[in-house]
């Protein structure tokens, strides 16, 4: 499924939560993606760390594992558990460059732009926020509320 232009393309606005929700709803209709849920230790980590810390972790993990033009072990670099970000990456098709290209329109073979990097983090954090529906994780991410925040 190829979608709208990549987040880093000219004229592409930052996704609003509704656009992210539509993308996540489409991904959730895919049987493989629908299997992923935030459970056990991964859920506890998200609850304990909170949205701002999880967002920083996501930003750092994406920088190391996905942002390079040719990530090490691309296609196999994302574990299935061990951190809420890893689970979210599989659920949101942000686990490898092939999935990023297919589902989010971000081409392989070049480093992610800053806008694309932040977009991937937004998708991951939005999925985690949706998973944390019991009130411990608010829908409003404090990092996104501050446009001067380092990774916003």
Features:
152 residues; mainly alpha; globular; disordered C terminus; 0% strand
Largest sheet: none
Distance between the termini: 27 Å
Q: What integer value in Å does the Rg equal?
A: 14 Å
The proportion of strand residues reads: under 5%
Q: Kindly state the number of beta strands.
A: 0
Question: Which range best describes the helical content: under 10%, 10-25%, 25-40%, 40-55%, 55-70% or over 70%?
Answer: 40-55%
Order of helices and strands: HHHHHHH
Low-confidence segments, given as residue ranges, are: 8-13, 135-139, 148-152
Count of DSSP helices?
7
What would you call the shape? globular
- The chain-level mean pLDDT equals 84
Structural class: mainly alpha
Describe the structure.
It is a single chain. Helix content is 53%, strand content 0%. The protein has helices at 17-28, 31-34, 40-65, 84-91, 97-104, 114-131, 142-145. The protein starts with 16 loop residues before the first helix and ends in a 7-residue tail after the last helix.
